[in-house]
Specification:
With 158 residues, the chain is mainly β. Helix content is 8%, strand content 28%. It has 1 helix and 8 strands; from the N terminus they run αββββββββ.
């Protein structure tokens, strides 16, 4: 059979599904709708995860049993300056994406850094969450479009 003998049909396809956050992520997602940052603590090693990584400790493979509210501020533990454009890009380059250790958490959350030139971002820089208007908060980290340097310029000893 060759291509000329083939019949082609274009038909839109969609899939409807229900998704459950499960117990490991529910408190985290609910917290975001309320302007709170909720992580989870491992009962074995005491590490606090934010976000709570599906409710399981990567080190001990046990459920995170305690919800822990973490601060809206923290420090940059590592970062990358992005200079490569891509299709659909909405942020002007260069921009910075960083791993941020929030006060009260032991592991980093990846997010954007804005509010200062990319070449001024550094490891140890103190940053704080910038929230959308409360009317736009939802069960998503998009409720925080980015982090920005803390006004006093304090630098962590990390």
């Amino acid at each position: 059979m060759n291509n000329e003998d083939m019949m082609r049909v274009r038909y839109p396809v969609s899939v409807t599904y229900n998704w459950s956050a499960g117990p490991g992520s529910s408190a985290y997602l609910q917290g975001l709708t309320e302007g709170r940052l909720v992580g989870g603590r491992c009962p074995e090693c005491d590490l606090v995860y934010f976000p709570p990584k599906n409710g399981i400790c990567a080190k001990d493979a046990v459920f995170l049993t305690e919800d822990v509210e973490v601060a809206h501020e923290g420090y940059i533990s590592t970062f990358c300056i992005v200079n490569v454009p891509f299709l659909g890009q909405q942020i002007e380059i260069p921009y910075v994406t960083a791993s941020i250790i929030l006060d009260g958490s032991d592991l980093g959350v990846s997010h954007l850094i804005q509010g200062c030139p990319a070449d001024q971002v550094h490891i140890g820089m103190r940053v704080k969450a910038v929230w959308q208007d409360e009317s736009e908060w939802g069960p998503t980290l998009a409720s925080i479009p980015h982090f920005t340097p803390v006004d006093n310029g304090e630098v962590s000893n990390a």
